[in-house]
Design a protein that fits this description.
It is built from 2 helices and 6 strands; from the N terminus they run ββαβββαβ. The two termini are 28 Å apart. By secondary structure, it is of the alpha+beta class. Helix content is 28%, strand content 33%. It has a single domain, classed as Trna Endonuclease, Chain: A, domain 1, CATH 3.40.1350.10. It is globular and about 40 Å long.
Length: 107
């Protein structure tokens, strides 16, 4: 049996597994926005290293955003769908925003 923290239930959309219904719904909306031309492209689970000094993979700390979006006006956004913000997420968010000077959009 697969156990999820915080009662989020995984869903499959287009054969892709999402950790929650909320994340799956956002994926569907981004597909619609891409078809309409509002969004140029988007990536799922794009990783960003948070510590450049790691010597091994095991030492690496990274943040993976739920969605990296390129909009038709040329802007780019990093999105994370959160039902519950864990302490680890809050720390990684702060590290990411400090290092990359990009604000994470939460939905």
């Amino acid at each position: 049996m697969y156990y999820r923290k915080y009662n989020a239930k995984p869903v499959f959309v287009d054969g892709i597994r999402f950790d929650s219904k909320k994340e799956g719904s956002r994926y569907k909306k981004l597909k619609e926005l891409k078809e309409s031309g509002e969004v140029i492209s988007f990536e799922l689970q794009k990783p960003y290293p948070l510590n450049d000094y790691a010597k091994t993979k095991r030492e690496q700390i990274k943040y993976c955003c739920d969605f990296f979006i390129k909009w038709k006006d040329g802007t780019e956004t990093i999105e994370d769908t959160k039902g519950f913000k864990t302490q680890v997420y809050k720390i990684k968010k702060k590290l990411f925003e400090t290092k990359y000077r990009i604000k994470i959009v939460e939905s």
